[in-house]
Write a structure and sequence with these properties.
Helix content: 10-25%
Number of strands: 18
Structural class: alpha+beta
Number of helices: 4
Number of domains: 2
Order of helices and strands: HEHEEEEEEEEEHEEHEEEEEE
Shape: globular
Strand content: 25-35%
Distance between the termini: 81 Å
Largest sheet: 11 strands, mixed
């Protein structure tokens, strides 16, 4: 009787395993909201044009009560930890920052991923006149939306194509309203020599020569006035402790091409380009 019992159990296990092998693989993504439709999609340029007063001065926000959406590709994420809890979305007309209180977004929003964002009931605002999508912060300012809310407001719409949006050549005089947030390349530039460790963003406890503002260090380039443009790096960036491109033998700065997100920060009479390098490979040393 025991032999028959064990034989029956073995048959049952084989049958269960066979059934497991017949299961279909999941076809839906665990991220985003697949029920979002593709109706009422406007361009990013049109979105900015619809809310001009939000960017007239620093730190304002307004709720989007229209049934509108934007579609674009991710051009920058937190893969290098320099874009903190935010990513940049760009279409053929412009770009905008989307602020989300979530880490590790590069895991599901890779560079080149196309998405649609349902904007109704989200907020649009200007942080130092830099357009952002998010939620109110500290009253009139714009800040991050919670991650659960974001998951309900975006949908994947296409495959990943990292080459679909190419960086434009940076021009310090280009229109900030139209171009802030875009992926750009600064060509044939060099970092200004600095005292101390000479890294992108050292901890002030290790390097007393550095000034940290909002957890970031601004580095000047020899080709631009620091009041017009800086390269801004978080002290938490994965490349923060890397040496600036300096020839160790001669002590002279090396020429390089720098790709990054061209954000802006306006306060009072100042309106400065702040270039956010996404990852270490965005810096190309010119041989």
């Amino acid at each position: 009787m025991k032999t028959i019992k064990y034989f029956a159990m073995a048959i049952a296990c084989v049958a269960f395993a066979a059934c497991q092998g017949d299961w279909d693989e999941p076809t839906t993504s665990p991220y985003g909201n697949s029920s979002i439709n593709d109706e009422n999609i406007i361009t990013i340029a049109q979105l900015k044009a619809d809310y001009p007063n939000v960017f007239a001065s620093s730190d304002q926000n307004v709720k989007i009560d229209k049934d509108i959406k934007i579609k674009g590709r991710v051009t920058g994420n937190d893969i290098g930890s320099n874009l903190y809890k935010q990513f940049t979305l760009q279409d053929e007309t412009g770009a905008i920052i989307v602020a989300v209180n979530q880490s590790g977004m590069h895991g599901f929003l890779a560079e080149g991923q196309e998405i649609v964002i349902d904007l109704k009931d989200l907020y649009i605002g200007g942080y130092g006149k830099q357009p952002e999508i998010g939620q109110p912060y500290n009253g009139t300012s714009i800040g991050r939306m919670n991650k659960e809310l974001f998951q309900q407001h975006f949908k994947y719409t296409g495959s990943i194509d990292a080459n679909a949006i190419q960086p434009i050549d940076f021009d310090v005089d280009m229109d900030k309203d139209a171009n802030c947030g875009k992926l750009v390349t600064l060509k044939n530039v060099s970092f200004a020599l600095v005292a101390g460790l000479g890294t992108f963003a050292p901890d002030s406890a290790l390097d007393k020569t550095v000034t940290i503002k909002a957890g970031c260090v601004n580095r000047a380039l020899n080709e631009y006035s620091a009041s017009d443009l800086v390269v801004r790096t978080s002290t938490y960036a994965k490349f923060a402790a890397k040496k600036l491109p300096i020839d160790e033998a001669t002590g002279k700065p090396l020429k390089c091409n720098i790709t990054g997100i061209a954000t802006r920060y306006a306060s009072g009479n100042k309106d400065t380009w702040q270039i956010l390098i996404r990852k270490e490979s965005d810096i190309e040393i010119i041989k």
